[in-house]
Design brief:
Blueprint (H helix, E strand, L loop, with lengths): L3 H39 L4 E4 L3 H14 L11 E3 L4 H10 L7 H7 L5 E5 L6 H12 L3 E7 L3 H6 L5 E5 L4 H24 L4
Parallel strand pairs: 1-2, 1-3, 3-4, 4-5
Helix pairs in contact: 1-7, 2-7, 4-5
Length: 198
């Protein structure tokens, strides 16, 4: 008989251990990414986000936190998840290729000074890679959330970009850290714009 309680404890332990192990390694780059995002927003730029599956949900979560709010009331911030328009996504996938579903939106909506948040646990998602290439064409900077060593995305990033690579091979664990990173980014953006809470 499977010991479900033990498996659950192991999930919690593994997740907590990875977050603590990743903290010091990732914190400086998370701070740099937050600075890049805040600089973009203060210059009236916007943030585009994309990913597949669970990473699509993370892209949408991030945009929702900025347009709505994170933990404090503040003016709306311009962020667009490129994962939500089914007519647009299916038209591009059908008429061109699934690899182009984000890149065509980046070319249509992105401008110099904007930021792309590209999320891929493997670092090898073809449509996120194409979006990064499109962002560079539009003179945008890129923040890449990845894991498993960063894959092909790691090779595409430029010095002005930020790579937030979770040091773990397992997708579920990577996604758990990605969510924490997103919350860190939102918190630093709010703290920079609004000041520290009393």
């Amino acid at each position: 008989m499977v010991d479900h309680l033990q498996r659950i404890r192991e999930h919690f332990n593994d997740s907590a251990r990875l977050k603590l192990d990743a903290r010091d390694a990732m914190a400086p780059e998370i701070a740099r990414a937050a600075g890049l995002l805040t600089e973009c927003l203060l210059a009236d730029g916007k943030i585009l986000s994309c990913g597949n599956g669970g990473s699509a949900a993370d892209a949408q979560h991030f945009a929702a936190e900025l347009v709505g709010r994170f933990e404090r009331e503040r003016p709306e911030l311009p962020a667009i998840a490129l994962t939500t328009d089914t007519s647009l996504l299916t038209a591009i996938a059908n008429d061109y290729s699934f690899e182009q579903v984000f890149a065509k939106q980046v070319r249509a909506l992105g401008a110099r000074g904007d930021v792309l948040l590209g999320i891929s646990t493997s670092g090898n998602s073809g449509n996120v890679i194409a979006a990064i290439e499109a962002a560079h064409q539009r003179e945008m900077r890129v923040i890449a959330l990845s894991g498993k060593g960063g894959g092909r995305i790691a090779e595409l990033l430029r010095p002005a970009d930020v790579h937030l690579c979770v040091p773990h091979p397992r997708t579920a664990r990577i996604q758990e850290v990605h969510l924490l990173v997103i919350h860190c980014l939102c918190d630093i953006i709010d703290t920079t714009l609004l000041g520290d809470e009393e």
